[in-house]
Amino acid sequence: MTTGTTRPLRGAEHEILLALRLHGPSTRADLVQRTGLSRATVSTATARLLTADRITSAGTAPARRSIGRTPERLALSISGAVILGVEFGHRRVTVTAMDEAHYVEGSATAVYEQDTSWPHRIRHAFELLDGLGVPDRRAVIAVGLGVPGRIPDRERVTDSLVATFASRVAREVRVDNNARLAGLAESVWGAGRDLQSFIYLRLMDGVGGALVTHGTIYDGLHGTAGEFGHITVDPAGPECRCGKRGCLEAYVSRERILEATAHRDLDVLREVLDAGDARRREIVAGAGRRIGVVLANTCTSLDVEGVVLGGDLVTLGRHLTAPLEAAFSENLMPARAHRIALHPGRIRQVDGALGGIALVLRDHTIALSRPDSPTGAGYPALAKPSECTVSDRKGRLSS
């Protein structure tokens, strides 16, 4: 018996295009599940879309232990244009270009000092774009920008960035907190792809995150939801850059941990921890325990399915995550402890930039094709793959 809903064919085609925009390459069975359409309707609609060159074959799905033909995956036909994701972090800028079918065309990163001026950060970004050849050889559909949430004069900075990229790269520019965008990337291509709702925590120079539910970031009333780094863990604790005292970020940011352990590099610190330095191990373990308590309390309040951990500090490995996991489990309500899982993030380095691309993919007002494209009717807007390996020149994020 065929399950799903039979709808007018044109409407079915629209829903399939939306699903492919949101999730990337998908089998027909995936499309049945994601759209709620019947198998017969999906089969007929995809045949019409293939004939019209609106979609194309993306090869076969990864092999599974089953009998029968390996299913074909379908993807949006590409127009020759790209979407850009740009993340301006505290110490680096990352640029990633992706086409409509979720193929990564290129990615590059430049490192700078934390006190680097914004004009110089922007110059680094455009140098990376020049290196990728994006402005010269490709039309850019839109740009998604990630910017830290706690920086001086943030509104003026973001307005300037949007104006600069709109005038020099693409008319359509979207911007959001870079930690929130990293969480969105994990929901589309990473560890959160199979979770209906989760907390994403990014442990970097700052500590931020997102509440993601059904593939969407919860913004909150003023667009600042997800500031988990500014939950108070000790009212009498050290001053935080947000103006309060004793915030989680004041204890567990990259800068604080390196300062407390008298190191300047996380990789070197990991080597020292592996060698058995007891004092430094306890400093890192203490940070892990504080994170675990905050996450447990947040999960108790929000009743989410899981937690995804990202950011550079995760490179400290079990020295950080083992005490974190123990504190997390101990501070959850016993009835919920077995139902909420901790997951390491699967996207590194480019997570914020990919999140900028996901931000564009979810904006229904942005058409995914160039006006001069052979398939220039434009795709309706919306995105998802698995554990990510991002490579230059046609590396695909695949599920």
Describe this structure in words.
The protein has 399 residues and is an alpha/beta fold. It has three domains: 9-76, Winged helix-like DNA-binding domain superfamily/Winged helix DNA-binding domain (Arc Repressor Mutant, subunit A), CATH 1.10.10.10; 82-180 and 349-396, 2-Layer Sandwich (Nucleotidyltransferase, domain 5), CATH 3.30.420; 193-344, ATPase, nucleotide binding domain (Nucleotidyltransferase, domain 5, 2-Layer Sandwich), CATH 3.30.420. The protein has 14 helices and 14 strands. The strands form three sheets. It has a six-stranded mixed β-sheet with strand order 8-7-4-5-6-14. Strand 10 (207-213) and strand 11 form a beta hairpin. Helix 1 crosses helix 3 and helix 11 (278-302) runs parallel beside helix 12. The longest helix has 25 residues, at 278-302. Belongs to the ROK (NagC/XylR) family. Keywords: Kinase, Transferase. InterPro entries: ATPase_NBD, ROK, ROK_cs, WH-like_DNA-bd_sf, WH_DNA-bd_sf.
